[in-house]
Amino acid sequence: MCTIKNPKGCTVATIPHSDGLYWVIASKPTSNGHHANIATEKMDINLAHWKFGHISHNAIKHAVLKGYITGIKLDNQSKPEFCEACAKAKSARQPFPKESET
């Protein structure tokens, strides 16, 4: 069990430990101001592309616009740049020679 206390020593939350992990079930933040550490970070589209596992720039923009990704605000001035890692991952390969087939 993990117990979180405020500076006055009052228990704010207890989180159960299960299978080596602490299970936190969170709901959407409320407007009453009682939520923990919610911040919005302004992020370049290329940095978001890298941080979200190289998914397409358009998919990131769509997910942020629809609210599927929260906590970031995309920098509208940033432009998608060439991603060498994506280009290498998508490079074509030659077919296997016939003699390697069984």
Main beta sheet, described? Answer: 2 strands, antiparallel
Low-confidence stretches: none
The Cα radius of gyration reads 22 Å
Q: What number is the mean pLDDT?
A: 81
**Taking strands numbered 1, 2, ... along the chain, how are they ordered across the largest sheet?**
1-2
Oligomer: single chain
Task: State the end-to-end CA separation.
Answer: 55 Å
Strand proportion = 15-25%
Structural class: alpha+beta
Could you say which overall geometry the principal axes of the C-alpha atoms support? flat
Which series of helices and strands comes N to C? EEEEEHHEH
- Share of helix, binned: 10-25%
Could you give the count of β-strands?
Answer: 6
Secondary structure topology:
Layout: E1 2-5, E2 11-15, E3 17-18, E4 21-22, E5 41-43, H1 45-51, H2 57-66, E6 72-74, H3 84-89
Parallel strand pairs: 5-6
Antiparallel strand pairs: 1-2, 3-4
What does this structure look like?
The chain is an alpha+beta fold and 102 residues long. The protein has a domain at 38-88. It has helices at 45-51, 57-66, 84-89, and strands at residues 2-5, 11-15, 17-18, 21-22, 41-43, 72-74. The longest helix has 10 residues, at 57-66. The radius of gyration is 22 Å and the shape is flat.
